[in-house]
Each structure stands twice: as structure tokens, then as C-alpha cells.
Design a protein that fits this description.
heterodimer; A: about 290 residues; mainly alpha; two-stranded antiparallel sheet; 2 strands; globular; B: alpha/beta; Rossmann fold; 2 domains; seven-stranded mixed sheet; five-stranded parallel sheet; 14 strands; transport (chain A)
């Protein structure tokens, strides 16, 4: 029963990892910007939801919508006012990374100043597990996490495959010159990537605020998982990032079956290391040719 | 014109000399607290107490000049703590530093010993802290005393014999594990499982499954800061209904206000907040007024650490001796016993104190359920 419990826990955690990883992968794939502040987007989203829903007692759909609005505005503002100016002065990949890292640090400290640096959580019945079978506990949040992750991923695939802006996003990930040739504005498409990528962290952030709770430094771990999942899944592959997020979540939990909890995180990095050595292109990434 | 210039130079020199004399009487001590990061709650708590003690000492004019504290942020990380300690010793030239957290305290202790700077810990409880040399003092009973108070209570009085330990993998967690391993068997209890977690872990649903699988009577949590709250919440959310127990790390407002922590037991040193002794009475009253929080053992410890410095520095000044680390140590050995919050405190030879312990239950604000005499 312990094994089954760990698999179920892993699927829940992995679904949330997948959602955040897909957002990061979408932005990185389309814009080639190492958006380190993706973790900060997650933290902002979670704290806005917490403040509205748990402190001001705003109705949950409004709280989620407000969280979406703020996090999209944050992503777009970063693209326009931080990354854009750096890129316009021929800033290197590393310069943009440092800029993004700086934003993440500032956001973490701002959150700490405004909301405090201690632990907070959103009280919700959704995080309380019920015993489905002897020794098998599942919280409603687990089901919601899986359904939401699947719905978001399917919706994203439809958006990217069937709408003009979605196709333009995919084109941008191939070549910005090609996009210009077709009379499209790469900067506007890049902004869409940031808006969409940031939006995808909201479900995971909201569910995390209920199940695991929050602290001001939570963005760092989210970022770590997003990068790991993007590499394991194959850079630029959304399907890969989603599957890798799920794999990492399950592996992290399954490690507890036989190993000390200390090894749980190490297992995640072992998988990452194995992919870097044995299959650098990841699950679904394309092999680079010279 | 030349004479005027000479007078001006002379006047300026006198002014500088006078100013130098005045500031030489002011005293400055250091404090290395977590002021940012996941454990900043503790730093905030400690600062409320140290600032209160400084204002009490300055109001009472116990020292020749004004006392102030140079705060440095350790983020509860040993590496940051060492950087802070070097700055306090080499730049601020302080003779007395307040320290917190076991890992940080151990990391700064070598600098304290080398530079003959007194380091006083009021928050870390790893038993190793008793072995860090003569310049490292503890104004808090260490975790071995906490475990030795809690284990008999749970096994003998509550009949909870099967323990599972969830501990953070650092010197504190490891020492509590060692202490539980050695103290449970003679009492008729057993440590069924010890699950170590990295200090940055945030997901504990899998740990909860392992805890349930071990079928414990009691789950002892040895972590700190935001992480211990996450452990408590996720254990409860994931079907762990057994008694929770911990050490003095639970004596923070975040745990007191966490609904899932209700009923958890934790140890602290014995302090009667309703005591009639004037030091405790004044601290309890003014700490509440100033910080809008109920007093905790941690707050009392750091208040005591500053008060201790005031008593030692004042005695040195009266004797016409400079306030240096060596003189502070000699004076502490000479005086031996001090009136602090919680009552009269006597230092052991190894720079630690012993105290009666109390077992508290989280119920909004902690309530004392058992008092354990000084070992």
C-alpha cells in the first residue's frame, strides 16, 4: 500500500511540476530567454491568491482571476521593461539571465517584506486527505491537480496548433527572422509567450498554497524543478516538459519507498544527470546538428 | 591670522579628543541572526527582545555610555554566519556577539575562540554547543536536556512508546536523533523510524506515507523555521493523526497560529511568566507591550544574553578594566550566578546553563502541561 500511496503522491506532485515546467519551457523555447524569474511568477501568483482568498476572504474564482491578471502583468512587464532593453543593447544570454536572477531576488525580498518570511498556507478542505482504502490517503487536491494539468496541457496544445498566435509562437521558437519575413512582430509574439507561460503557473501556485504551504523563498525550488524538467523533457518541447515534470514528481516520491528521504531530491538530479549524459536532447527534444 | 589658525587647530583637536573620549564609553555588541530567508521569523523574534534589553540597560544607565547592537544577517546559514562574525570581530571590533542556530554557532565558534570574542547562543540547542570552548556560552538549555525531559513524559505518563523521528539533516537534527536513540530504550520506548529531510525540502506528503507505515504512537519533529510548519501541516493533511512532539523550535508564533499544530507538545526551559521576580515581571510586561506578542523562551534568552553583558561590562567598568572578551570571561567566572528572566541562573564550567524544563501544548498560545525539575 505504501508503494501505491507514493505513486499517487508522485502523480499529484508531478502534475504540478509539469504545469510550472511547461510555462518555463514555453517561454524559453519561444524567446530563448532563461527566465529565472519564472519562480518569482509562481510566488507572486501564490501570495496574491493567499492574500485575496485567505486574508480578504474574496470569492475563490475572483481570487484566481486576480492572481492570473497580476502574474500575466508581471511576466509582460519583465519582457517589456527588463529583457527588452537588455536585448536591444545586444545583451548576451548571460546578461539577461543575471537580470532575471536579480528580479527573482528582489521579488523574494519584497514578498518577505510584505507578507513576512515565515510559513503561510491557505486553509482548505481540498488539502485534507481521506482514506480511500486502508492505508491509502488521497486529498481532493490531488484529483484537481491532475485534471487541471491535463486540461491546461490539452488547451495549450489546441491553442498552439489551431490559433494564429499559437502558430506564430511555434514559428518564433524556430526562427525570429522567419517570423519577420512573414510580417509578424517577434517582440509582440514574445510578449504573448511571457503572458501564456506566466499564466500556466497559476493552477500550480494556487494548489501549492493549499497543499504544501508557502514561504517567500519558494520560487527558487520551483525554478530548479522547471529547469530540470525542461532539460529532461527536451529543450523547447512542451510535451517533454510536461512528461518530465510528471516523471520527476513520481521519481521523487518513489525514492521514498526504499531510500531515506535525503535521497528523494538526489534522485531527481540523478535523472537529470543521466539524461544530460545519455540523452542530451531529452525525451522529445531534437538532436542538434552542426 | 597665523595665531587664529593655531587656535582653530587647537580647538578642533580638543573637540576631536573630547568626542573620542565620549564615544569610547559607548559600548557596542554584535548579533548574528537570521534576518532574511525562511528562518527570518526567528531573527525578528530575537531582535524584539535584544532591543528591549538595550533600552532597559540604557534607561537604567548601568553602563558608562550607550549600548548598541550591530546586527548581521546569517540567514541561518553557517557560511553567512562566518562572514558576519569576521565583520563583527575585525571591523566592528566587538567583544561580545549574540549567536543563533546550531550550525551557525558551531561555524563562528572557531573565530570566537581565536579572537577571544565571547559568543553567546540563546537559540541553538544542539548538544555539541557545550563543547565549543571557553569563549562560547549558552544561555539556553541544550537539546539533550529537552529530549530527556520529553521522552520520559511521553513514554511513562502518556504511554506513547513507539516513536518516529522526522529530523532535518544538520547538527541539531542529528544530535536529537542520537539522544532519542540512547534515551528511549531504557524507558521502554523505541525509535521505530528516523526520517531525515534536507533543510530545503518542502514536500512532505511522501514522508507522511512513511510515517503512517511505521505505525508510531508519537511523531517527534526536529526541524525549524518555515519547514517545521510545513511538516506539521502536511503530516496532518496526509492522514497522520498521532501525537506530535518537538523541542523548543516550536516556540514561535507561526506554530502557535497553525491550526494543524493544535495539541502538539514541545519542551522549553522552565519560565514562569507570572513569577513575581522583578526581572521576569518587567520583561513579560514590557515585551508584550512593545512587540504585541506573548513572551517566549527564545525572547527571554536573548534578553538575558544582553542583560548578562550589561552586568559583566558594568562590573568591569567599576573595576576600571576594559570590556574585552578575556575580561568578560574572567568576570563571568568570578560572578558565577546572575539574576535573569526566569530566575537565578548559574553557569556550568563548560559555559552552559541547566534549568528546569517545561512541556507545553500548542493550543493557540502554548499552555504548560508538565514541569520537569532541573537535571
Amino acid at each position: 500500500m505504501l508503494l501505491l500511496q507514493l505513486i499517487i503522491n508522485g502523480i499529484q506532485v508531478g502534475a504540478l511540476y509539469g504545469l510550472t515546467a511547461v510555462g518555463f519551457s514555453l517561454i524559453f523555447g519561444a524567446t530563448k530567454i532563461f527566465h529565472f524569474a519564472h519562480g518569482a511568477s509562481f510566488a507572486i501568483s501564490a501570495y496574491i491568491f493567499y492574500y485575496l482568498y485567505a486574508v480578504l476572504l474574496v470569492w475563490w474564482p475572483i481570487s484566481i482571476l486576480a492572481s492570473c491578471f497580476v502574474v500575466v502583468a508581471f511576466g509582460v512587464a519583465l519582457d517589456r521593461y527588463v529583457y527588452g532593453p537588455i536585448q536591444s543593447t545586444d545583451g548576451s544570454f548571460f546578461t539577461i539571465f543575471v537580470g532575471s536572477f536579480g528580479v527573482a531576488v528582489v521579488v523574494q525580498n519584497l514578498i518577505g517584506t510584505v507578507f513576512g518570511r515565515g510559513f503561510i498556507s491557505v486553509p482548505s478542505a481540498l488539502s485534507k486527505s481521506v482514506e480511500l482504502a486502508p492505508g491509502l490517503y488521497v486529498a481532493p487536491a490531488a484529483g484537481i491537480a491532475v485534471v487541471t494539468a491535463v486540461a491546461c496541457f490539452v488547451g495549450l496544445q489546441l491553442f498552439l496548433g489551431r490559433t494564429n498566435i499559437g502558430i506564430a509562437l511555434r514559428a518564433l521558437s524556430e526562427s525570429s527572422a522567419l517570423v519577420r519575413t512573414f510580417g509578424l512582430n517577434p517582440k509582440a509574439i514574445s510578449t504573448c509567450a511571457f503572458a501564456l507561460g506566466s499564466l500556466l503557473v497559476v493552477p500550480a501556485a494556487v494548489l501549492t498554497s493549499m497543499t504544501s504551504g508557502l514561504n517567500a523563498a519558494i520560487g527558487g525550488r520551483v525554478m530548479l524543478i522547471s529547469v530540470a524538467a525542461t532539460i529532461v523533457g527536451g529543450v523547447g518541447s512542451l510535451r517533454g516538459a510536461a512528461c518530465a515534470g510528471l516523471l520527476l514528481g513520481i521519481a521523487e516520491n518513489l525514492a521514498l519507498w526504499r531510500f531515506d528521504p535525503q535521497w528523494s531530491e538526489a534522485v531527481m538530479f540523478l535523472i537529470l544527470f543521466a539524461f544530460i549524459v545519455l540523452r542530451p536532447s531529452g525525451f522529445f527534444g531534437r538532436v542538434a546538428t552542426s | 591670522m597665523g595665531r587664529l589658525r593655531k587656535v582653530a587647530v587647537l580647538a578642533f583637536s580638543l573637540l576631536v579628543a573630547f568626542a573620542g573620549q565620549a564615544s569610547a564609553q559607548d559600548l557596542r555588541i554584535g548579533a548574528i541572526f537570521p534576518l532574511s530567508g525562511a528562518n527570518a521569523d526567528y531573527g525578528d523574534l530575537y531582535m524584539g527582545a535584544t532591543e528591549l534589553a538595550v533600552s532597559h540597560l540604557n534607561d537604567a544607565k548601568v553602563l558608562g555610555g550607550k549600548l548598541s547592537i550591530a546586527y548581521e544577517d546569517s540567514q541561518a546559514l553557517p557560511q553567512q554566519g562566518v562572514i558576519a562574525m569576521n565583520k563583527l570581530v575585525n571591523v566592528e571590533k566587538v567583544a561580545y556577539v549574540l549567536s543563533a542556530f546550531t550550525g551557525v554557532s558551531k561555524a563562528i565558534s572557531t573565530t570566537a575562540a581565536r579572537s577571544h570574542t565571547v559568543a553567546v547562543n540563546g537559540g541553538g540547542v544542539g548538544p555539541d554547543l557545550a563543547e565549543l570552548g571557553e569563549y562560547f556560552w549558552n544561555v539556553i538549555p541544550l537539546a539533550n536536556f529537552e529530549v530527556r525531559a520529553m521522552a520520559p513524559y511521553l513514554v511513562q505518563k502518556r504511554g506513547l512508546k513507539r516513536f518516529v523521528l522526522v529530523y532535518v539533516d544538520d547538527p541539531l537534527g542529528q544530535s536529537i536523533k542520537r539522544e532519542l536513540e540512547s534515551s528511549l530504550a531504557p524507558l521502554g520506548g523505541a525509535l521505530a523510524e528516523a526520517l531525515s529531510v534536507p533543510s530545503n525540502a518542502q514536500q512532505f506528503s511522501g514522508i507522511a506515507a512513511r510515517v503512517r507505515d511505521a505505525k508510531p504512537d508519537v511523531v517527534y519533529i526536529a526541524s525549524f523555521g518555515a519547514q517545521q510548519s510545513q511538516i506539521v501541516k502536511q503530516l496532518r493533511d496526509n492522514g497522520v493523526t498521532q501525537q506530535l512532539a518537538s523541542y523548543s523550535g516550536f516556540a514561535i508564533p507561526a506554530i502557535a497560529s497553525l491550526p494543524e499544530a493544535k495539541g502538539a507538545l514541545f519542551t522549553t526551559q522552565r519560565i514562569d511568566w507570572n513569577s513575581g521576580d522583578p526581572v521576569t515581571k518587567r520583561f513579560t510586561r514590557e515585551y508584550q507591550t512593545r512587540t504585541n506578542r506573548a513572551p517566549t523562551a527564545y525572547a527571554a534568552n536573548y534578553y538575558n544574553a544582553v542583560l548578562l553583558f550589561g552586568a559583566l561590562a558594568s562590573a568591569l567598568q567599576k573595576a576600571g578594566l576594559p570590556v574585552t572578551g578575556e575580561n568578560l570571561l574572567a568576570k563571568r567566572r568570578e560572578i558565577g550566578t546572575f539574576d535573569l528572566v526566569g530566575g537565578r541562573v548559574t553557569f556550568e564550567k563548560d559555559g552552559t546553563i541547566r534549568s528546569a524544563m517545561q512541556i507545553n501544548e500548542v493550543d493557540g498560545e502554548p499552555a504548560v502541561v508538565e514541569i520537569v525539575a532541573t537535571p
